[in-house]
Amino acid sequence: MTDHQTTHAAQEDARNETILIWLNGRIVPRAEALVSVYDSGFMLGDGVWEGLRLYNGKWAFVDEHLSRLFEAARAIDLDIGLTQEEVFQAITDTQTANGMTTDAHARLMVTRGVKTRPFQHPSLSRQGPTVAIIMEHSRPAIARPIRLATVPHIRGLPMTQDPKLNSHSKLNCILACIAAEKAGADEALMLDIHGFVNTTNACNFFIVRKGEVWTSTGDYCMNGITRQKVIDLCREDGIPVHEKNFSLVETYGADEAFLTGTFGAQTPVGEIDGRVIGDGGQGPVTTRIQHLYKALIQRETT
Fold it and tell me: Which of 22, 81, 293, 298 is most open to solvent, judged by the fewest CB atoms within 10 Å of its CB?
């Protein structure tokens, strides 16, 4: 389709051509932020990452994001080599160096570091981790509700690769995204191992039916921080919300659907597998949740 878009579409900002990047303790120009071809992340996808968003001079839910990063690092037996406080200081230093005050997005990446030989075993990564922080001026620019296509790629069992892990190894999700694009959609809707609706390749997924908000059980999707904030806000505001199994049939009959993520907060879905959801636009419950979330961000960052 000629009007294809992504869930991370952002306004063009020329300042991003000259951003400064934090790399292993140094803040360097974008063109100098380079890692070795022997790096574990480049060679094998051996690493973890985290995304953060800047509002009103403050990083939203930063403690929760950094806790998730360190938990993921522990899960793969990776020593970041910094404390959580030191990582936050690196974020603050990068923000200051770039003169950013709001509408910025940071991607923190930690790999097992440079390998001595180009093979898999983690013992070959002997030089310590590679830590990078990319920070961009970033204002979402979604032109219309997202179109989804269900794909054969699933979010699998935790004994293969736990879908809760924010790993550099994202090939499964990338293949899902490619399949969705081949089907003329913007993003992939992925099922779980039982065939229930789970998540998209990049975001958590919600539907609204008769005033109730539904999302997956959470067993096979990323433990999204924005996802949890939406669940909490619904409960606080009296909106019925359920973490449950539901099918594509129930999804196609939804009144509304939306995605959640750090970058886009809540993004409406207008079409799934060629079926228009509701009236194809953003629904009233989604709008209400957006307002609740914006109020939460205001409270957290001012």
Answer: 298
Per-residue tokens: 106: 């940071």
Q: What is the Rg, in whole angstroms, of the alpha carbon atoms belonging to the chain?
A: 19
H helix intervals, 76-135: 84-98
- pLDDT per residue rounded down to tens, the chain (302 residues): 447 888 888 889 999 999 999 999 999 999 999 999 999 999 999 999 999 999 999 999 999 999 999 999 999 999 999 999 999 999 999 999 999 999 999 999 999 999 999 999 999 999 999 999 999 999 988 889 999 999 999 998 988 889 999 999 999 999 999 999 999 999 999 999 999 999 999 999 999 999 999 999 999 999 999 999 999 999 999 999 999 999 999 999 999 999 999 999 999 999 999 999 999 999 999 999 999 999 999 999 98
